[in-house]
Amino acid sequence: MTGDGYAGDVTSVEAMEILRNTAGAVLLDVRTDAEWTFVGRPDLSSLGREPVLISWQTFPGMAPNGGFVEAVRRSIQAKDVPVLVMCRSGQRSKSAAIALTEAGYGDCRNISDGFEGPKDEDGHRNTVAGWRANGLPWQQG
């Protein structure tokens, strides 16, 4: 565990390698329903599995999801597998990784470049880094 209260950061490319090579590893996408529907979500069908989709905050007000940890417990029972936590750009997912580590999950890693990555010099996402910009599999809707 890092001094930040979770197992550390990985890039989206590193996360996909962990998912490919580590039995039981889980991709947890903590964005909102609106983001999954309108922006897209990771496609892990080539690995024979699906990402776990549980919002860290609720849309539209972005209030904290008070049932987040309990929802994760229902979906991810094993607390000793890598849990790779993703949001848009790595901020919400870091908070979620810390909360899950505090709840007893031993290997929570923040996907630091997220699904859309940071903004480029023109203020646009999906161009510099992130799941989509790195050409990793995803689907819309």
User: Describe the biggest sheet?
Assistant: 5 strands, parallel
Superfamily at the CATH H level?
A: Rhodanese-like domain
Helix content: 25-40%
Looking at the structure, the CATH topology is: Oxidized Rhodanese, domain 1
Any idea what the shape is? Answer: globular
Q: Low-confidence segments, ≥5 residues, pLDDT <50?
A: none
Report what the structure shows.
- With 141 residues, this protein is α/β, with parallel strands linked by helices.
- It has one domain (8-136): Rhodanese-like domain (Oxidized Rhodanese, domain 1, 3-Layer(aba) Sandwich), CATH 3.40.250.10.
- The chain contains four helices and nine strands, in the order βαβαββββαβαββ.
- It has helices at 12-21, 33-39, 68-75, 92-102, and strands spanning 8-10, 26-29, 41-42, 52-53, 57-58, 63-64, 83-86, 108-111, 138-139.
- It has a five-stranded parallel β-sheet.
- β7 (83-86), α4 and β8 form a beta-alpha-beta unit.
- The radius of gyration is 14 Å and the shape is globular.
Q: How does the SSE layout of this entry go?
A:
Elements lengths: L7 E3 L1 H10 L4 E4 L3 H7 L1 E2 L9 E2 L3 E2 L4 E2 L3 H8 L7 E4 L5 H11 L5 E4 L26 E2 L2
Parallel strand pairs: 1-8, 2-4, 2-7, 7-8
Antiparallel strand pairs: 3-9, 5-6
GO molecular function: transferase activity
Keywords: Transferase
Pfam family, one: Rhodanese
